[in-house]
Amino acid sequence: MTSEQLEEYLESILDIETMDGIAKTSAIAKCLKVAPASVTEALQVLSEKGFVHYEPYKGATLTDLGREMAQKVKRRHRLLEVFLTDVLHINRENVHDEACKMEHTLSDETECALCKLLKAPARCPHGSLIEACNRQVESCSACLAGKEPSSSCSRDEPLIPVTSLAPGQKATIAFIRGDNSVVQRLTDLGLTIRTEIQLIRKAPMLGPVEIGVRKTKLAIDHTIADHIFVTSCGEKAR
Amino acid sequence: MSGCRDCKGCMSPVPLPEPKDEYVVALAGNANVGKSATFNQLTGVDQDIGNWPGKTVERAEGILQYRGQRIRVIDLPGIYSITALSTEEQISREFIAHDHPDVVVNVLDASALERNLFFTLQLSELESPMVLALNQMDLAAKKGIVIDIRKLSDLLGIPVIPTVAIQGKGITDLSDAILSAIVTRPRPHTLPYGKEVEDRIRKIMGLLPGGVAGYPPRWTAIKLLEADSDTVWEAKKLAPDAASAAETFRQELERMHGEPAATILSGERYHVAEQLVSEVMEIRTPGDHEISLTERIDRLALHPVIGYILLILTIGGLLVWTFIVGAWISEVLTAFLSGIAPLQPLVKGSVTDVIFNGAWTGFVAALTLILPYVIPFYLFLALIEDSGFLTRFSLMLDRGMHKMGLHGKAIIPLVLGFGCTVPACLSCRIIESPKQKFLAAFLVTLVPCSARTIVILGVVALFVNIWWAMALYLFDFLLIVILGRLAFRLLPGESVGMIMEMPEYHVPSAPIVLGQTWQRTKSLIWIVLPAYIIGSIAITAAYAAGFLEPINTVLSPITVILLGLPALTGVVFVFGFIRKEMTILALAALFGTTIFSTVLTPVQLIVFGLVAMLYAPCISTLLALAKEFSWKQALAIAALETGLAIALGAIAFRLLGLFM
Prior knowledge:
- The complex is a heterodimer.
- In chain A, strands 3-8-4-5-6-7 form a six-stranded antiparallel β-sheet.
- By secondary structure, chain A is an alpha+beta fold.
- Chain A folds into three domains: 3-62, Orthogonal Bundle (Arc Repressor Mutant, subunit A), CATH 1.10.10; 67-131, Iron dependent repressor, metal binding and dimerisation domain (Diphtheria Toxin Repressor, domain 2, Orthogonal Bundle); 160-231, Ferrous iron transport protein A (FeoA) (SH3 type barrels).
- Chain A is built from nine helices and eight strands.
- By secondary structure, chain B is α/β, with parallel strands linked by helices.
- Chain B folds into three domains: 3-184, P-loop containing nucleotide triphosphate hydrolases (Rossmann fold, 3-Layer(aba) Sandwich); 195-283, Helix Hairpins (Orthogonal Bundle), CATH 1.10.287; 306-494 and 510-659, no CATH class.
- Chain B has helices spanning 8-11, 35-43, 87-98, 113-124, 137-142, 149-156, 171-184, 195-207, 217-225, 229-238, 240-257, 261-280, 289-301, 306-340, 351-387, 389-402, 411-416, 421-426, 434-444, 450-463, 466-490, 510-545, 548-562, 569-576, 582-591, 602-614, 619-628, 631-659, and strands at 23-28, 60-66, 69-75, 103-109, 130-135, 145-147, 160-162, 281-283, 499-501.
- A six-stranded mixed β-sheet of chain B has the order 2-3-1-4-5-7, with helices on both faces. In chain B, strands 6-8 form a two-stranded antiparallel ribbon.
- In chain B, α27 (619-628) packs across α28 (631-659).
- β7 (216-220) of chain A pairs antiparallel with β9 (499-501) of chain B, so a sheet runs across the interface.
């Protein structure tokens, strides 16, 4: 199995899993347009490599390792889509297929440069959220100012966009994406790094999200909330 | 409420300050913590109170008469930070630094202590004498929050007074604390930040000869570190050493943390606030009674389906209630007033007759046309505001407002606009970006205010039918959406998303709701009654003297040829510019009848209503726009709307003429 195939499998399992909870062989086969038999074979390989939990006749779910890998590819895919649309002005219908081919060959360095060039975009042209990168940083300021970020180590825990939390779920802010003005506005209202917050509710149709922080409730526009990333079991404040 | 009687040590007996002409006290604090309520309790002035953040848009002033002292109290706009430079933040910061109030009273929401103390820390860096009013103690108690007042006072080094301003609790203690603070000038302790930041602040302070531009040294050092553009600019002239050292330190800090220095400092402030809270605050019971009430209401009010139904019912109810109750009051008043003296808008007889008839017509028109509709509207509005529902509308409608380049907060000015356009324009200040603020103000001028509603009711609904009046209303909403979308595309500048605090619901208090309604009605009476009486005299007199013909002749190409209206309406529109309802008055006075269907055809009535609804905003709105933005922008709005009204009126005249 080539690394390209592997990444395609992980990506489609992530998509199907997000929708259905578990990725059935038939669903993966349909998504990737391959025979169910080859899917079964591939899932066994992925399971041996520790990327998925696979139960025959039931389907597959991603392991932490597999999820990290899948999200990384997804991030590259969506960044490339933004690049193709906004910079190269390629027709929106074609960018998905183009990005699908390019995503597997992108290096970390190019990914980072792309993110900088596009000023850390929040969403792809089709409206899906772009995951944060996994560098151990608290904001984008160093990258956007053209300096080396203070840390190039990767995170131990995966970042979750606050908008993906379930209503009532608590989490700790780990990273705020975007330029200084966004970060400052949120910081002044008490949304500082390492603060525990609670998602209270999400308004329908990508409306604002209501977040509980420091005993107050804030309604925050979806486009701003997209910039807030949390870890669900973060360490306690300093 | 134990008040300060428990801590005898800190301030009793109250030392009285030397009688001076005037002491100045400023109220500062986060939005929606009860500053205006505190202000009203202290001064007896009726400042608007509403349960939504950002309501105090202009600083209000009042006098506190206490123990023979006369103290000027200033209510500053509510802000969350003095970091970024919004208009409100600038007003507050400059007032405290340059006008040197004798005492700054920092009003805090005790139920959200951490966030409020963040602001207290920033405020204390301005080094004015300070008193803390820990408000909404009742709400905190309901949440099971217990605060050690004495300890907080010791840690901060300034008096802390617990209050429930809405019920007037703790106000006497606060007044005592203010008086004694005028004498003792208690200044807050400097609470040090983390070592790496604190060391750098001290080093910069060492290089500063004093403060810069009237600000104290520590504040200046912090602002230099945060790269605050105004401070850096001033410091480069006065203390170039400090400015360049601060720049180096700032870069060091940013390298260490990978965050902009202003964000690092905000983080530090929150860290200090967290420590303070952990020392003085305890949560006894996992308070959930009242919280769950807010949560329970929100489950309905913010429900994806039920929420929108409630919203439509509320706004629809607001309008229907206004019309039904308004019509009833209007009827009663008309019957009563016509019993006193008959309405004779006919222009005949001696000079005194003309003046008396004019004045009486104006008085009756104001009383029967304006007040009946304005009072029920403001009453209902006050209920929505005070309970906290208005902010939920913002959240629910945020998505829709995006289509016009606005966000949910803009719904507040737009709803206020149904009452009177002037305060609605001023309330656009709650919107952050200049582009969105202007856009919102522009759309507010198109919202049918009570005056325009009256014109539509009095001309179209009464003499054509109610459906045409509704159609005009709907057309206006449609126009707002279309023009909003267009203006959003055409205007330069960026649109930013909404961040808004959601206050807890509370049962509206009768004195506040009634007070608010009366206050708003009163301010309208002051404008409307004289304008009506004088305007009405002027119209009848000018007509009797034959001055109006030239105006009508000049405007007749527009009124007669384009709009198909009688030439007399030219002068009607001119008077409508003073106030929109004056068009009805002028119409009645000039045609000598209040039964407009006898002098105008249905098409003419509809066209008249349409044009009156849309053409240039009234003079008070124009002044408000000029003050908030610029004369250029205000006149541009007026010109655009007048042009639009004429164009749409001309089209309507021709289209309606085909089948009516």
